[in-house]
Fold this protein.
Amino acid sequence: MQARTIATHRRLPVYVRMLWGNMPALHVLPAGVRPQRARIDADDWYLPVGIPTDEQGLLDLATLAHAAAHRRFGMAPMPRGGLRVVQQILVGLLEDARVEWLAMEDLPGLRALWAPFHVADVALTPTLEVLFARLARALFDPAARDPHPWVLKGRRLFFTGHVEGRRDWRPPSPTSLRRVASILGNDLGQLRLRLNAGVFEIQPAYRDDNAHLWTTPPEGEGVPLPRSARPVEQNPADAPPPSGAAPPPGAPSTEADARLAMENVAASDGLDGQVVRELATPEWDYRIRRYRHAWCTVQVEAPVAVGSESVPGESAPLSDRLLARRVLAPTHRSPERRRSVRGPVFDLPAVVDARAALRRREPVDPRLYRERTTRTRGESIAIVLDVSASTAEALPRGGGHTVLDRMRRLALALAEGVLRSGGRCAVLAFASNTRAQVRFQRLRDFADPPVAGPLPERLARLSPGWSTRMGAAVRGASALLAEVPVADGRRVILLTDGQPHDVDCHDPRYLWEDFRRARLEAERLGIAVLCIDLAALRP
Amino acid sequence: MSDPLASWRIGAEPYYARAGREVAAFEAAAALRMPLLLKGPTGCGKTRFVEHMAWRLGRALVTIACNEDTTAADLVGRWLLDADGTRWHDGPLTFAARHGAICYLDEVVEARPDTIVIIHPLTDTRRALPIEARHELVRAHPDFLLVASFNPGYQGLGKALKTSTRQRFCAMDFTYPAADVEAAIVAHESGVDAELARRLVVLGRKTRILQDAGLEEGASTRMLVHAGGLMTQGLPPGEACRLAVVAALTDDGDLAAALAAAVDAAF
């Protein structure tokens, strides 16, 4: 059965954020954690393992909405002191009902989301667990009928002062909840009902374990989550630097500090494949909404020399050349209709001007025609290939060719297209091995002669490996483009199989968010970024 | 004598809910014939404000929807051929300057910067427009006023106003109104009741925090009005919002699903 990962549900973080602005990192609980109920830490929320079905999707939404309601309307953690386990459970149950009432007042549609999960059956033998579920349902839906005296008492205490149809009722305060929980817990004691704490699970299933309600974990309990469940590695250098000092690497920075804060760490004249330049680039951490200053090291290598009689590479097939032509279509149409002495169509303003000149008995400009052009008009384009390990996978319906094979052909077609139309291009290949090594292989530089030259052979020599840190790749390419004299535009064309990933990032959303940020940064510099997913292209 | 601006006059008062002192600011600038630049996100009321002020000042309104194909000739005018030969046809900018209308350049940054510089002589003490094709200098009518608008969030490649152009304008920042004002606007413009309008505004404000989550812009007031209008035609709130807000905002499947779930939560 397909494993469920938060990565397959990118919608969930957006949904949570839309409710009341929370932006936690979302994780899946390890399968061994019992009970499988959501857990809410300050910045990390854990969803039960579950299975990827439509019903699970609704359960996820209900779980996240409930967690968000706690964050929005919940009370501060309180000491357990003096409360027995049953009374602690009741405090949690009452608090769940309280925050849900406030949440539904703000977002009425949540009632329809949560209601299907309240399925407590009044016909079942009233064990402790069943009574808890029935009370939860009675508090969620005042119209639900339940004859049990204990449930009726709980509802009466919770809804004191509530009048049907009036909007001025407020749920009990946290202090009142504790008192009500104490009363109801004592009543349960007199009923001589025992709690099987080992198998007890909070109902309904979308509600969390309420561990966040308390200042201390339960005695003998509290399974710490494994380190692998944590998201991005934590950086201890979160304190702001002394005034006047550069922030230490990894320190969160404001956008003003981190944008363009790329530093040439080292530069040298290198031989084939040697690192000739290092750039320290920031990385955007969406969880803290700050940049990590100088977080990644981009290493630019010297081009690999090829033989003096280079083997001419295959020219790109027609399909790739057509695709390249579409990709390279000018970002702006020609600013003026070109007045030309020849062309397939008349330039109407030129014709009008000519007629007017004739009537004024003045000389006529013979440039009466419009000439079409597809020139890129001197654009500088950086073609960047993702050569991570995943590009060794076969293309679907690709006839045995890999993603990297297709990437080579398309890169060659793009480069030939740019050079043919008079633009400048550089071709680079990148892969990353943690943030400390984002490697750029230079296959062609902007200053190289306007012919393909050794590019086909260098493309042929590429081999896949490592991972895909796309944000760093965009920043590295932007830095190289920024050094090119501005012509009629600058672009980065990124060829990839579409999955930003690196071994030091466990939050699947982290590198996606950084990539988005890097694109925005590039666009603010006037550099357009186009990303082509080779795995999704038709063969 | 017929009024050449008759077709551009606004007959009835366009509804506009004030957010601050923008009406007084516009009137002060208009009294001094200062050009005005309105900045704000799409659908927040900039154009409606200009229409309202045109009615309020009793002036005709000539609107130009700028785009990257807009040329100087489109603004100033061109020679046309007809059966009798050639004749000059005033472009909207010349027409407004000649006869004393408010000329409104909507989304001015969409036009190329080298086209927009044609307005410079109208925006300084000269208040004149040279028409080289006719060897004519058009002196702006005393009632002529130049107003432009744009969305600062769209400024990217080649879509920035030149500094030499920007500095000729007084600028006013527009944003979405306060929640209660926006709800009143949505209720008035769409016809929904106050409670539905309030919930629409709550939803709209939640979408506006998603700009760095892949949404270029959140739901505009205009979108919320559209949703409300659909509700008055009998569509359930969820369906109306999916049509007017979710599907219009994004083509991304995950984002659309998240927005749809939030719509379900709101109603």
User: Anything to note?
Assistant: The two ends of chain B are 57 Å apart (CA to CA). DSSP finds eleven helices and nine strands in chain B. The longest helix of chain B spans residues 194-207.
